[in-house]
Amino acid sequence: MTGLFVILALVLAVVYFNDAWRSIERARKVARDVCARAGVQFLDGSVVAAGVRPDWSGGRLGLVRRYRFEFATDGNARYTGELSLRGRRVRVVSMDLPDGGRLLDPDSTGPGPGGERP
Fold first, then answer.
1. Under DSSP, is residue 57 helix (H, G, I), strand (E, B) or coil?
2. Which regions are flagged for Low complexity bias (predicted)?
């Protein structure tokens, strides 16, 4: 019986880390696309996990993952952006600019994988 729990725990860990990896890849693509649309430079080509929390919306349990990224408007100063995903869908993208914060509509990020809207 203990062996069954160990196998189940390993399977759940693999599923979780696979989902986390796919989410990071999606967040990186969204951040790159948003920066390109905003006319700023996406720095370092990476995103950093900023948090994970459970979310019960639409009658289904899911995870909301937050990521941070950095961008530059002129190549000199770094600014921070943040995005959140629920599954593969973009919930919100915000970018801190020197002239104040700017909130981008998730629909501005374009279609998601398979052509569905975020």
1. strand
2. 97-107
Count CB-CB contacts under 10 A for residue 41.
Answer: 14
Matching residue, tokens 């370092």: 44
Handedness of CA 118, 112, 52, 16 (dihedral sign): positive
Answer whether 71's CB lies under 8 Å from 28's CB.
Answer: no
Length of the chain: 118
Burial label, 34 (beta-carbon count in 10 A; 0-12, 13-18, 19+): buried
Average pLDDT of the chain, as a whole number: 84
Q: What is the CA radius of gyration of the chain?
A: 17
Output the pLDDT for position 116.
41
Q: What is the pTM of this model?
A: 0.78
Supply φ then ψ for residue 5, to 5 degrees.
Answer: -65, -40
- The confidence score (pLDDT) of residue 51 equals 94
CB 66 within 8 A of CB 47: no
pLDDT computed for residue 83 by the predictor:
94
